[in-house]
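User: I'm curious what two different proteins look like when written out as structure tokens. Can you demonstrate?

Assistant: Sure. I'll show them one after the other, since each token string lines up with its own sequence. Here's the first protein:
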Amino acid sequence: MAQRISRAKQTIRTSGIGFERPAARARAERLETVLRVLYLIFNEGYTASVGPRLQRVDLSSEAIRLARGVHRLAPDDTEVAGLLALMILTDARRDARSGPAGELVPLQQQDRSRWDRAAIDEGVALLSATLGRGRVGPYQLQAAVAAVHDEAARYEDTDWPQILALYTLLERMHDNPMVTLSRAIAVAMVRGPAAGLEMLDALAADERLAGNHRLDAVRGHLCEMAGNREAAVRHYLAAANRTTNTAERNYLLTQAATVREDGARSR
């Protein structure tokens, strides 16, 4: 890394490129790239892509720190505020996402008294201050989804129709299969698992999700909701075989075993 930095400095020195404020369009493009990188860093910290740990707090905390710095430098940019709010609202649930042995605890089973209420209040206030000040962007919509989850006293109190509406807007402005996957969950919660599974059938052909364990994980969950235990077990196992995070794999294997045992007892 030191050698790369040294070579970059030498390239700048010999090229004669001056340090000057970029034009508005170039600045917007560069800022978008910065936000994307911070978003990816945070996501990797919130759920590590590989290794035994579910979370890497060092990465998510650093992403929040840097996002705060960007927000101080660009306080009027609504998407900067939206990304910071998204990070804060999501990170507020961090302590409840894993158990004593580091095992994954899904949203519906989390002890919400362990959520950071001060962080939730900060994130909601930040989001409320930025909404309505201009064109709403993807980060603001994702932050709004996180706020709906955080403000529900119980999982059963979650306003799924509102979450579905937010994901529908997000999908219209942002062609991303992960957004569609999240919308399928919301559709299942509002209209039933069959409707969600129908959406997943269309997603299965999307090459961007090829090999991604989340498609099988969601399908397993919706099949379980629908009472199709055999299919649920099959997809949970497929997802477990594809994920490279140990905590996620253990959770998926546990789900498969639980569903299989429930099916055996019901016979």
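Here's a second, unrelated protein for contrast:
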Amino acid sequence: MAPEIRLIDSEGNQAGIVPPEEGLKMAEREGLDLVEISPDAKPPVCKVMDYGKYRYEIAKKEKDSKKKQHIIVVKEIRLRPRTEDHDLEFKMKHARKFLEQKNKVKFTVMFRGREMAYKEFGEQLLDRVVEYLDEVSKIEMEKKMEGRRLTMTLIPK
């Protein structure tokens, strides 16, 4: 416990720098608690208030801040080098929906067997994807080979 504290009374007025015992007496007279608001300050700041109400207010602020933040989810869309136009269009509609919901979309072109000899088909496919989703997205991670997979990540604009 610090030898002296900066005391704020129950109305929010500064009572000055006093010994902690005096703060405890003031809190006891008013039927409230002495709460340490800022322990890192020199001297520490304490306030006479209802501790239960203080904890409730803090919990309420945390809940509000959590409500306002958006968790970014990475959605994956898998393609093959020979994916047909209709299938690609169908998957692009899903990708557009994901991007409009502010999610990242990872495109993966999977190669099997001898398809590895034709990597340019996968690259052309991803170029078409970028072109199709140009107005709602931008590239976060360029095309990159990872073993037998060609991946690329798009983020919403």
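A detail about the second structure: The CA atoms of residues 24 and 34 lie 6 Å apart.
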